[in-house]
């Protein structure tokens, strides 16, 4: 039950965030506009009557898709009709949702009534949190509801093209951040890896402290009003360090593996270290049941080492003026 509620909150947050946090272009396909990119719309009635080359992201009272959409459909509306092919996934929240066209990937619906008519085809899995489900179409993947799920939904999900593509993008993102860290901060990165591998237990304790105490301190600063700027800067820096912890954990794992294969392997062979470590880290963090725990422990491990190295670098910087005077 908690998992279902969490998925509802996440989907609703993504919809609202996409509409209010990102630049919005108001277009109406019904007015004859040729849409060669994404379609963003926020109005009472949206009728997509011309093909869309990108995604359709809509908040409306009524949404009707009557022309092909190459990308995804993400919508928040009272009444939703999909009466044309959708190449990507459909993720919608609505009171009444009707599917007549084919969907290339997954279908995710939160609402009251979902009707998948006989001519409709769903390419991958279907996840529906609805009071009434009328399923007459063709489903190439499992149909999952909060009350009844397929025995192996996780295996089906991780082998789906959309899941594999998303993880591939995340892996290359990790590689890019790792290369930037190496180019801009090679010495601190090497020091952090050395610290991770030499003092893992000490790093875990420091990392746990940083992961928990920093957000609490930011909340206290927010409460003082005058501390809001400092709280914002701190939380941004903390979030950046948490993400970089993924990269550093992958680097440390890659270095340990490469050093085991070749004892003369040095930090200078960074490309193979990053490639091997990134692949192993991605596999480990997607192990069923244990993946999230491995990821959390890796973040804490790397975060603790980052804090110790940062403290050492700041100490060296503070001592430099004194050395210059002497």
Walk me through the structure.
With 326 residues, the chain is of the alpha/beta class. The protein has 2 domains: 2-150, no CATH class; 161-319, no CATH class. It contains 8 helices and 10 strands. Strands 1, 2, 3, 4, 5, 7, 8 and 10 form an 8-stranded parallel sheet that branches. A two-stranded parallel sheet has the order 6-9.
Give a concise summary.
It contains eight helices and ten strands.
Distance between the termini: 67 Å
Helical amount? 40-55%
Tell me the domain tally.
2
> Main beta sheet: strand number and arrangement?
8 strands, parallel
Overall shape: it is elongated
Q: Helix- and strand-based class?
A: alpha/beta
Quickly count the helices: 8
Radius of gyration equals: 24 Å
Per DSSP E runs of 2 or more residues, the count of β-strands stands at: 10
Topology:
Blueprint: H1 2-20, E1 39-48, E2 56-65, E3 73-82, E4 90-99, E5 107-116, E6 121-122, E7 126-129, E8 132-135, E9 138-139, E10 143-144, H2 153-158, H3 161-184, H4 186-198, H5 200-223, H6 228-261, H7 270-284, H8 291-325
Parallel strand pairs: 1-2, 2-3, 3-4, 4-5, 5-7, 5-8, 6-9, 7-10
Helix pairs in contact: 3-4, 3-6, 3-7, 4-6, 4-8, 5-6, 5-8, 6-7, 6-8
């Amino acid at each position: 039950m908690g998992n279902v509620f969490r998925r509802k909150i996440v989907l609703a947050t993504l919809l609202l965030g996409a509409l209010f946090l990102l630049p919005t272009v108001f277009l109406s396909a019904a007015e004859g506009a040729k849409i060669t990119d994404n379609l963003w719309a926020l109005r009472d009635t949206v009728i997509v009557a011309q093909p869309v080359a990108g995604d359709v992201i809509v908040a409306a009272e009524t949404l009707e898709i009557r022309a092909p959409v190459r990308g995804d459909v993400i919508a928040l509306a009272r009444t939703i009709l999909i009466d044309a092919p959708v190449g990507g996934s459909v993720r919608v929240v609505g009171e009444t949702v009707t599917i007549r066209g084919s969907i290339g990937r997954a279908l995710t619906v939160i609402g009251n009534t979902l009707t998948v008519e006989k001519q409709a085809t769903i390419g991958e899995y279907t996840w529906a949190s609805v009071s009434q489900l009328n399923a007459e179409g063709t489903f190439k993947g499992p149909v999952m509801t909060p009350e009844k799920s397929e025995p192996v939904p996780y295996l089906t999900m991780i082998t789906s093209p959309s899941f594999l593509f998303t993880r591939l993008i995340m892996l290359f993102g990790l590689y890019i951040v790792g290369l930037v860290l190496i180019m801009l901060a090679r010495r601190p990165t090497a020091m952090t890896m050395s610290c991770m591998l030499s003092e893992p237990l000490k790093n875990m304790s420091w990392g746990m402290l940083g992961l928990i105490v920093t957000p609490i301190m930011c909340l206290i600063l927010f409460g003082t009003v005058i501390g809001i700027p400092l709280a914002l800067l701190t939380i941004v820096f903390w979030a950046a360090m948490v993400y970089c912890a993924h990269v550093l954990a992958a680097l440390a794992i890659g270095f340990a593996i490469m050093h085991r294969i070749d004892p003369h392997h040095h930090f200078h062979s960074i490309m193979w270290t990053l490639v091997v470590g990134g692949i192993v880290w991605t596999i480990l963090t997607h192990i069923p049941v244990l993946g999230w725990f491995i990821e959390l422990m890796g973040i804490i491990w790397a975060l603790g080492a980052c804090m110790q190295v940062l403290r050492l670098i700041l100490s060296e910087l503070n001592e430099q003026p004194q050395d210059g005077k002497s």
